[in-house]
# Entry
Amino acid sequence: MQNLITIREISETQLRNYLSLSFQIKKNPEQFSQKLKGKNILLFFVENSTRTKLSFENAVKKLGGNIVSFAGGSSSMSKGESLLDTVQTIQQYGLDALVMRHSSSGTIDWLSKASQLPAINAGDGQHEHPTQALLDVFTLMEHWNISADQPNPLQGKKVMIVGDIFHSRVARSNIHALTKLGAEVTLVAPKTLLPSDLSLFPKVNVLHRWDTEEGKERLAEADAVMMLRLQLERQKSAFFPTAAEYRHFWGLTRERELLLKPSAVILHPGPVNHGVEMDTEVVSSKKSLILKQVENGVWARMAAFVGVLK
Ligand code: NCD
# Structure
């Protein structure tokens, strides 16, 4: 049985296989239109989602599969039914794979083992969001016209990941994906929004401020800047004084965008807090690949299904 639960635990070759598949599927989706024929895919979302849920739904449809859709809040889980009882109940309708989003890290790993179902992680707590990293890296490679067929395809590329890294499963999956593919990664965040033990990550550079000589130099050299949402729903105490101060020190303002080189690109997984981590003009600037990320989410998630259920 194969799963896609973390990027950390897959090899560089497996990662490039998922990316190659994304390129092939985007080029010729028809060729894959029966891959999930007769298969029942449980989309189990116990935390809110727009892009991830819609793109997984789209991916199942484009692959010819059946969606068994399930939102925790409107089910018997609200009457106290356990996760395992819930999935074992749903399993009686016949399931071939599980896609799950949950607010607790590790839930999908446990549930996939307990239910014996192949699983794809659609975001677990502050842990990982592997398909987001796939679609982000795919979007960058497509934009730069880089193929996934050779090892180290992102060697020489400088990528900044900026903001609420502590609470971000997107950052964790992307740090693993980008470094596995050879990119140089710099994290930009206040100390309070960085994990306390960075030795758990592969080698990354760290900057606490943009407004230093080094900060400005690195911004001017970056090939891509990946902004993160300030995850206020996961913050139980104050991590920074005010939203205005956060924008001042760590936001991608219009002024900072102008320091980027002309070829640099900007990503954000969405949803964006406008005027906090990014100015509205930057969200819709020519450098922004945000809508391309949304579109590519479908191809990358189709690749995840084809890779896991092959
Ligand atoms: C991310 C998530 O849910 O982790 N969004 C997404 O999947 N599009 C990032 C976020 O919510 O900030």
Q: What stands out?
A: The chain has a mean pLDDT of 93. Residues 12-129+295-308 form a domain with the Rossmann fold fold (CATH 3.40.50.1370).
